[in-house]
Sequence to fold (192 residues):
Amino acid sequence: MNTSESIKEIATALSAAQGSLQDATKNAKNPHFKSDYADLSHVLEAIRPALKAQNLSVVQLPFSSGTRVGVTTRIMHSSGEFIEESIDLEVEGRNLAQAAGSHITYLRRYSLASLFAIHQKDDDGESAPKREARPSKPKASAPSQLEQQAIDAGIVTAEKLTDYKAARSEKEVNDWLNEQIAFQQRAELVTV
Fold:
């Protein structure tokens, strides 16, 4: 990951943006894997209001190197600070132009979803694969120490955390919270 010298302002803005984001709705089908996913337009639709509200913008630039194509995604803040990450894949097949275009769209979608911590949700509970029922947890349980730390740091609101926890395992939630707290701590270290 590359960043501007300081990321204090952008880290604060990203934290606020992620706290207000809604997950992207699955609206497309992958015939090869017989699965549903949120296409690039739905991922963009999910982040645009938060970008505007937090004075953030995103630029995604494709690149190639040998038989690989990739995308560099740069998130910029009105302060001039930025965070960027690049990802690439090997391109194979007979129609290399088509394969490269498909890879770039795929990488743009996954890069945005990753940088903004967006999950792809079903828009209809009936379309979700049937899973074993988990034992229900008490709805009014107090937040864990890690969850309270994230709430106190402004990383996530209690309401957003409740929604996030409803769709994920405890491990996924804790991993995400630890990642967000570490990101914020790195941002604070840069400004010291």
